[in-house]
């Protein structure tokens, strides 16, 4: 029972980070109409910028994370204005979508090469305030980092909900997602929507990257951007256009992966837990490609 509780908390912590990255994908999809993998690069760059500001330049940890999020938002918006928005109108709609996807994948590779060139290939510690600290409840030991990851992520997701549901920008974002042409005809400013989407995406990506790069998470490594690919099954599980679905999918995926790592027999190999999310995604795409959360939303409607 003790092991189950510890694995559950760890799984929820990992799952909420998957959810943050998946929500970055979903927000950009709603705002721009394109599936963009660039949040994976922002996860990586956000973590390394936090390391640069906090460890190398001795800035306060919270300030370092905030500056990293601001710079990543500016970088994402610059990419939208200079690259992704220019890929529209070049041919068939499917070619446009493919172009955005391929360019964003190329940018992830460039970001990974850049961090290796600037900061080197070795593992770094971002000197987070939690370290390896544990809280014990009887025989249950829970990482302080896991509790903070859950708390901060839930706060950020609550802010996202308020923005999307109760602000004019959020109404505009939902209008663009529903009917882009009609939204523009009603005076919705696509530049404001795009800027808001990139700011939200960057905040989620940097928080996820920072938490994964903590000492408890294994430190800062150049392949941190792989969470962008690991979060894809969560996005598919929840439905591409469903923000609540991203949360459900991320939490479910984190729990499944953590339980598999804790309970799967050694005969299945060390990579079984890492492989499992992809097995889930493949089966889901075959059985229910719209995602379970999307199905629930359709039934409620």
Describe what this molecule looks like in 3D:
This protein has helices at 2-32, 39-56, 61-82, 93-119, 144-166, 168-178, 180-185, 190-212, 227-230, 232-238, 243-263, 272-287, 292-300; strands spanning 134-137, 140-143. It is mostly helical and 301 residues long. It has one domain. The protein has a two-stranded antiparallel sheet with strand order 1-2. Helix 1 (2-32) packs parallel to helix 5 (144-166), helix 2 packs parallel to helix 4 (93-119) and helix 10 (232-238) packs across helix 11. The longest helix has 31 residues, at 2-32. It is globular and about 60 Å long. Residues 295-301 have low confidence and may be disordered.
Write the layout of secondary structure elements.
Blueprint: H1 2-32, H2 39-56, H3 61-82, H4 93-119, E1 134-137, E2 140-143, H5 144-166, H6 168-178, H7 180-185, H8 190-212, H9 227-230, H10 232-238, H11 243-263, H12 272-287, H13 292-300
Antiparallel strand pairs: 1-2
Helix pairs in contact: 1-5, 1-6, 1-8, 1-11, 2-3, 2-4, 2-8, 3-8, 5-6, 5-8, 6-8, 10-11, 10-12, 11-12
Strand order, sheet with most strands = 1-2
- Measured by DSSP, the beta-strand proportion falls in under 5%
Overall average pLDDT = 87
Gap between N and C termini: 40 Å
Which stretches are low in confidence, meaning pLDDT under 50 for 5 or more residues running?
A: 295-301
In helices, the fraction of residues equals: over 70%
Helix/strand order: HHHHEEHHHHHHHHH
Largest beta-sheet details = 2 strands, antiparallel
Provide the gyration radius in Å. Answer: 19 Å
GO molecular function: transmembrane transporter activity
Subcellular location: Cell membrane
Family: Belongs to the binding-protein-dependent transport system permease family. LivHM subfamily.
Protein name: Branched-chain amino acid ABC transporter permease
